[in-house]
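Sanity check

After download, print the first record. It should look like this:
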Amino acid sequence: MSRPQDPHRPFFPFGNPFRMMSPKGSRLSPKLVSLLADFEETLAERLRKLMPKDKDDILNLSWMRLAMESLCETHNVIKDLITELELPVSDWDEKWIDVYLDISVNLLDICIAFSSVLTKVSQGHLLLQCVLHTLDSSSPTQFGRARSSLDNWREHISSKNPRVESCRSILDNLVASLDLPKVKNSAKGKVLMRAMYGVKVVTVFVCSIFAAAFSGSAKNLLELNVSDTLPWAPAFSALQANVNAEVRNILSSGRATVLNELEAVDGSVKKLYEVIQNEVDTVEEELLQKTVLDLGKRADNLSQGLDHLTKAVDGFFKIVLSGRDALLCNLRATGTVPDILVGRNVEPVRR
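Expected structure tokens:
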């Protein structure tokens, strides 16, 4: 694992993650080996399902929803693994707890940033509906009012989002958190840490893609280097190489917007703007109706995709928040909460 500015330097969390299989220290029982193998094979299968069939699938809302839903499933499975390991929170090392809570805060923050972007784009749909409603009237001023609404839409979509600007620092924190603490004399702890390593790698990858797409900046695109001895590494490396390469191509293409559905709407907006530049009585009615219909269809497609993706991001937020709350409740119940781990208030997802 490495930071983006140094993609070739090997990085191993908690020392070498494969040392747990060595004769030294706690040995893994057949049950633990089976649990870890099942978890890692499931992770690999999820990564393979995320491989886009076509480059046009990358950075469309359907693929992004699939990626976020896959992340939700992966985080739920790690909860199941903790239960199967029969590793109560009271047996956790304080450093594990520290890392988990720090990571959860960063994930909640980045979910809030993503939700703010989706909300902003969704609000633009109201402006497009206003355009369509205006052009459905017979007012002699309809074109002027429609052009004004289209100008407002363009300005709204292109405006900066302060929350997205914070994504890079959050990603840096998540990358740093991959340096998990060493595990000594706990076979179950070693299985948990190795499984969490896989979850964190995939989480950082998906969040990196989302941050790059929403910010329109390649600086948020991370290159993560994992050892090919991990069972899920080939699937991850192939997926990352494929997706990152296409995202870079899109970001360097000069497109006004990065999301495919949003780019389609932007194209329709430009066509409509050209059509209604002239006076009402000089515009060909058939061309106007065709252009308006095209914008309506693409705007509806964008709106539906945004709704689905917003639900997926909200779902991930709730999974992370519930896991964090459950851990804190268990710690309080056992009276083992260190002062430094007292939970901060978490802002709710803003739609």
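If your output differs, re-run the checksum step. Summary of this record's structure: The mean pLDDT is 84.
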